[in-house]
Amino acid sequence: MTPEHQPAPGAAQTESELAWSNGLSLAALVEQGVRRSAKRGQRIEADRSTQPGVTVVVEGVACLTHPSSGLCTGLFSAGDPMDAGAARRPAIHGRWLTDGAVCDIPFDALVENLGLAAALAVVDAAAAYRRESVEWEMACSIQHQAPQRIARWVARMVDASGVVAINQAELAALAGIQRTSVSAAMMRFRAAGVKVLRGRIIASDIAALQQTACACGPHAA
Length: 221
Fold this sequence. Notes:
Layout: H1 26-30, E1 34-38, E2 43-44, E3 53-59, E4 61-65, E5 72-77, E6 81-85, E7 94-96, E8 100-106, H2 107-114, H3 116-143, H4 146-157, E9 163-164, H5 168-175, H6 179-189, E10 194-197, E11 200-203, H7 206-212
Antiparallel strand pairs: 1-8, 2-7, 3-6, 3-8, 4-5, 4-7, 9-11, 10-11
Helix pairs in contact: 2-3, 4-6, 4-7, 5-6
């Protein structure tokens, strides 16, 4: 697949049913909420809405991080519920790895459009999916070496032109490894057409890069 035919970061079929949503599409969910745009590097606020509901990524890729270490605890792209549940749930921490957007869908809006039982099912399913995504990432950090994890992250973040706007220091911080280890991983990725420039990574062949990546998480190829 050429870069011109690559999907945008975290691209999803907006009219297709989401795996976790009990038959709803991303477009159907977005119609019920309020969209918020985000810029690469923007921190994900720790303060939580007092209103229960679901926050779904619409565009881009966001990373949840451990509040103390800053290690990546989960990647979320278009169609993924980044947050879900009742009011006063635990705070989340993270930042955007690409430009993107989320949609906040209040529980009341879900009830109005779907009915109480279906709304509860959507919130429960979103919360379970988010929890499983974090568990996948934690298990991956134990089971797989850094190059496999980084290859998976880069493949998730690449944009339509084959570019990932991230540097090696950022990847090292997210993975909890030395920058030299990231450099070594990038050397291994050269066979997959990966080039490292100042502040960005060029991935011309995503399929080849995915061959070096681990198959963890709901977006595994």
